[in-house]
Design a protein that fits this description.
- The complex is a heterodimer of chains A (140) and B (303).
- With 140 residues, chain A is mostly beta strands.
- Chain A folds into 2 domains: 80 residues, Aspartate carbamoyltransferase regulatory subunit, N-terminal domain (Alpha-Beta Plaits, 2-Layer Sandwich), CATH 3.30.70.140; 37 residues, no CATH class.
- Chain A is built from 2 helices and 8 strands.
- In chain A, strands 2-3-1-4-5 form a 5-stranded antiparallel sheet, with helices on one face. In chain A, strands 6-7-8 form a 3-stranded antiparallel sheet, with helices on one face.
- The termini of chain A are far apart.
- Chain B contains 11 helices and 9 strands.
- In chain B, strand 8, helix 10 and strand 9 form a beta-alpha-beta unit.
- Chain B is globular, with a radius of gyration of 19 Å.
- Classes of the chains: A mainly beta (140), B alpha/beta (303).
């Protein structure tokens, strides 16, 4: 299967196989007017299988989201058909409105306009906790 | 120090400093009786906790200050849908310092992020209650003269008891402290608190048997099995009488044991224990007021 290389835009590469759709959704790529290709389970020498997203426009991408979902991804910026920048991701120290607190006792449940902010509390286990109630992400 | 939301914000040195002020207040009350003249403390209590509110108010009055109080959320702006952030901004125009209690975890932090005056967390749901921990620490230090080398037993509800979690977090910073965790299986200390103890290699044991460990303890911290922390009334009724302290159970205890309780108690310490010189829970209440005084002074830069 061939997908054309892009002239101007962004390639989100080295996505762990299976996480492409989640990144597509979290970055809100469905709202874009330009061409967007999601490639699932592409062959990779390093990873065996990987997902990729190609976006035919040089849009700003939220690197916090990418770093949180899969810190192994790279973001290639393409201009006039040439690679002009390759960005590597890191686990973000802070996430704002990327994940949401599920603790029913948390203040974010009643104060609708409060941003949901999580802080990285343990790098080794990629543990994030709500800054308000300290509940771990993904837990009630 | 701008606001105090969580005991972990305070360093060992800052806690020592507050205890030093507390001791000076006890020794020289007259020196402090006008320190807060012209200052106002706003006590914003979005859930009832009369004793904590009165402790803050008594602390401010003893410092010569005044108090604005919102004791009942039903009659307050919150019932009209005002956000915690807005309330904090509004109260900042009236008062010099806020003590806030709120049923939602993290509400005082939101207040502190929006207020232009210091905020003291007076309890946020099952989460933090730093002034209770300061009262506990000051009591232990006044009774024992040290934190190092103590064996501290916690008994009752160790799962939902936030005072227990906070005191463990505060005490684990001192050398050679050992914890004895006494609870039914259903109310054991949460794994995240235990994991921290394991990571820091702080010795602890878990047991269901209070009598078995009684002779080892320097401190026995009793807790109430709180109805409001349960989703299910059946579980509450089954577990509430699990551990009741009576004079008979204290026979094997050390002569200088310090018995503590954050109060209010229901029946987990028999009234007959009150006359035992080892009962320190009413001293704890008084120490709480002194630490609140110390904290108010420190936050208002008047210490």
């Amino acid at each position: 299967m061939n997908i054309d290389s892009i002239q101007d835009g962004i390639v989100i590469d080295h996505i762990e196989a299976g996480k492409g759709m989640e990144i597509f959704r979290l970055l809100g790529l469905d709202a874009l007017d330009c061409q967007v290709a999601i490639i699932k389970n592409a062959a990779s020498r390093k990873m065996g299988k990987k997902d990729m997203i190609k976006i035919a426009a040089n849009i700003p991408v939220n690197t916090d989201i990418l770093g949180y979902v899969d810190p192994g991804v790279t973001v290639d910026v393409i201009h006039n058909g040439a690679l002009v920048e390759k960005k590597k991701m890191e686990l973000p120290e802070k996430l704002t409105n990327v994940i949401f607190c599920r603790n029913p006792r948390c203040i974010t449940t009643t104060e609708q306009e409060l941003p949901h902010i999580f802080r990285l509390t343990k790098r080794e286990t990629r543990e994030y906790r709500c800054i308000y109630c300290e509940t771990k992400s993904g837990k009630a | 120090m701008k606001s105090v939301i969580d005991i972990r914000q305070l360093s060992v040195e800052e806690i020592d400093g507050l205890m030093e002020i507390g001791r000076d207040i006890i020794a020289n009350p007259g020196k402090y009786s006008e320190k807060c003249r012209g200052k106002k403390l706003a006590t914003l209590f979005f859930e009832p906790s009369t004793r904590t509110r009165l402790s803050f108010e008594a602390a401010m009055y003893e410092l010569g200050g005044n108090v604005l109080t919102m004791a009942d959320a039903q009659s307050s702006s919150a019932s009209k849908g005002e956000s915690v952030a807005d309330t904090a901004k509004v109260i900042s125009c009236y008062a010099d310092i806020i003590a806030m209690r709120h049923p939602k975890e993290g509400a005082p932090m939101v207040a502190a992020m929006n207020a232009t005056i210091p905020v003291i967390n007076a309890g946020d749901g099952g989460h933090n209650h730093p002034t209770q921990t300061l009262a506990d620490l000051f009591t232990i230090h006044r009774e024992k003269g040290r934190f190092e080398g103590l064996t501290v037993g916690f008994c009752g509800d160790l799962k939902f008891g936030r005072t227990v979690h906070s005191l463990i977090t505060a005490m684990e910073r001192y050398k050679d402290v050992r914890f004895v965790l006494i609870s039914p299986d259903e109310l054991k200390l949460p794994s995240y608190v235990k994991n921290t103890l394991k990571e820091k290699e702080i010795p602890y044991i878990q047991t269901r048997d209070l009598l078995l460990v009684m002779p080892e303890l320097d401190i026995l911290y009793m807790t109430r099995v709180q109805k409001e922390r349960f989703f299910n009334e059946e579980d509450y009724l089954r577990l509430k009488d699990s551990y009741i302290l009576t004079p008979e159970k204290l026979v094997e205890a050390k002569a200088d044991l310090c018995i503590m309780h954050p109060l209010p108690r229901v029946n987990e310490i028999s009234v007959a224990v009150d006359s035992d010189p080892r009962a320190c829970y009413f001293k704890q209440v008084l120490n709480g007021k002194y630490m609140r005084m110390a904290l108010i002074l420190k936050l208002l830069d008047l210490a």
